Structure formats: C-alpha cells, structure tokens
What we know:
Blueprint lengths: L1 H6 L4 H26 L1 H8 L5 H17 L1 H14 L2 H19 L5 H4 L2 H29 L7 H29 L2 H8 L1 H18 L6 H7 L8 H8 L1 H32 L4 H29 L2 H22 L4 H19 L2 H7 L6 H17 L2 H12 L5 H17 L11
Helix pairs in contact: 2-6, 2-8, 2-9, 2-11, 3-4, 4-8, 4-19, 4-20, 5-6, 5-8, 5-19, 6-8, 6-11, 8-9, 8-19, 9-15, 14-15, 14-17, 14-18, 14-19, 14-20, 14-21, 15-17, 16-17, 16-21, 18-19
Amino acid sequence: MRKLLKNxxxxxxxxxxxxxxxxxxxxxxxxxxxxxxxxxxxxHLFFPTKNHLAxxxxxxxxFAVGYLIRPLGGVLLSHFGDTYGRKKTFVSTLLLMxxxxxxxxxxxxxxxxxxxxxxxxxxxxxxxGLSVGGEIPGAITFASEHVKPDKRGLTCSFIFFGINTGMxxxxxxSVLMTNYxxxxxxxxxxxxIPFLLGGLLGVVSxxxxxxxxxxxxxxxxxxKEEKRIIPFLKVIxxxxxxxxxxxxxxxxxxxxxxxxxLFIPTYLSSILHYPxxxxxxxxTINMIFFSFALVSAGxxxxxxxxxxxxxxxxxxxxxxxxxxxxxxxxxxxPLVMMVMILISLLSACIVGVYPxxxxxxxxxxxxxxxxxxxxxxxxxxxxxxxxxxxxxLIHQTGNVLAPSFYLTGSAxxxxxxxxxxxxxxxxxxx
Length: 430
C-alpha cells in the first residue's frame, strides 16, 4: 500500500494525511464493530433466552440502535465541521468512541444486575453511534480536501481500506479469542478484552491525529462571510436531490458491509451451523482480499470514472444476490470461500468508489454535512438494520435465503441512483 501511494505522485504531506486518516478510521471502526463479532456471546450474557434466534434478535436490535443514532451524530458533528473546521471535529470523535468502548468491557452482565445490563449496553452503543456518525464522513472529507483532484478516488478508497482494517482487526481478535480460549473462559471474562483494547487504541489514535493541519479548501472558505450558515438547513433546502441520490448510492455499500461482512459469520455459524472457527478464519482472509480490491477500484475510478464501477457492482448483486445465498446453504466449505471472494469483488466496485462520489456531489460550505447526512442515513436505515431484518425474516419465514431479498432491493436502489450520476473525477472541488 505504501508503495502504491508513492507511485501515485502524492506529496509527503498528502501521504501523511491519508495514512493518519486511515489509521484513525481503522481504530475507531474496530471499536464500533467488535460488538457484532461477539454477537452470540453477548446474546448469552445480556439477552439470555432459551430461543437462540430470539437472543440474537436482542443483540442485533442493540447493534441497530448504534446505527440508527448515526444520522443524529452526523448532523451534530458535521455542523461543527462545516462551521469551525474539519480537524477539530475529526479529532474529537475519537475520544467519544474510545470511552464507551472501554466501558462496555467493564459492564456487568444480566446475571449480575438484570435488565440494567442491557440498558447500559444500549446507552454505550448510542454514544458509539454518535461518534462514528461524524468520524467516517469527517475522515473522507478531511483527506479528500487535502489531495489533488485526480487522486481523490485513490484517497477515499484508502480511508475505507483503513475502515476495513478495523473490521479485519476485529475479525482477527475474534478468531484468536475463539481458537485460544475455552467457551467457558470466553463467556466469563474473555469477551471483555477486545473492548478494553479498543478503548486504549482509540486514545493512541487521538494523539496521532492532533498533529494534522486543517484542510486548505476549508481555510479558504473560512475567510468568507458565507460561513455564517446552518449547514444542515442549507443541505436540505438547496441540495436535497443530491442527498436522495447519495442515499441511493450508499445504501448498497451499507448493506454490503453490514450484511455480507458483519452478519455473514454469525449467519453461517449460528444459523447454517458451519464450524465457527473456520468461518471466522475465512471471513478474515476474505476481508484482506476485499481491502486490496476496493483500493484498486478507487484507483481505477480516477481514470475510468466512478459510474461504471457502481453499475457493475449493483447489477452484479441484483442478478446474483439470491444465488450467492443459495450456494452458502450447500454445506460446502470450499464453495463458501468462492462465494466470499465473488462477494468481495462486487463489493469493491461499490465500497471503493461511492464515498468519493458523495464528496463530489456537495460544495465546500456543506460538504461535511451533506456527506454525513447521506452516508449515515444509508447506514442507519439500510445497513444497521440489516442483521436485525435478516434474522427476523429467517425467524418469521423459516427461509434461510430470505436475507438475499434485502440485498437485491438495496442493489436496485443503487443501480437507479447510478444511472443519473455524472462523473466528476479529475474536477476541482468547489
């Protein structure tokens, strides 16, 4: 990755910005997402019930709460980012994430304090959701405003490479815990370690980010009187069509991450009864492949344009969504790995490109807010509810292929939005 950055004629300062933005995103997203990798364990500890699916629904409902609050976090934090500066907001989100993550690792369980355990878990997930609602749009806005126009696709894809690294780290920690701790040890105390570790890593990232400078584009804008606006109102009044288009473009990316990378390990091990350790290892390997594939897609989009990749990815999931889930039910581990690789290739066309598109759709005075509203609405509505809806559909219908319908529907939304997209690669941000 470092070699690719050097070969792309980025300056030393640009490479530094991309690296620190990606690193911060990795550590913060690890904090937010480690929850889902321990869904089964948390279900036993915080939502004990004789029905395993009902227990998972409780866990994924709290997971969804963290996503549903993200639009509010995005609006609040992006207001300060568009009004007072990208850097100040961008840095502060890390502490807002690190503290709740650390406290989750200290929570008492249902057996110790009853329903208060679930209430405490829900509250801390709300704080995490507020933080991540401003973090990812802030990272993308901050980094893209620091680099040359013809490197925005590569830059934005590196931010998501960092975010994927956070997911990978979470998956790797889950694999280590599953393979090296007994089920009893994991249930008694082992589950706390990933959360305590995440809180400490977030503090380290905070101090690294403090060294970065404000973006030149925002500094130029800040000198103008136009800064005296309420960004959210301006976005709704003047850029509402762009918001709708952005939500349509981002919804598939949200479902891809939450359904096909975060929910799939639980789906395969808890519902289809594949070996948990093997599936988590497969998922970790697949996320490494996915991370490099999405950087390649972002890099190519700087030359070929964004639209073609979004169309390829959305058409692929529209036509193959049901077949992918059908193949997963065949009780064949090599087939599962092949399906995961195909999912990664199609997902890279979406996740490696759409963040840059969202940046290009909004002007400087409201870029952070427009990005935050669109991105977080997509993840809050479409992404965060994915595991809950998928589990609920299976529970109600008895059909283990039911999640594929949700994937296909989001792909149709992305396809329609991409049809009306105009390529803006290599154009200056305004």
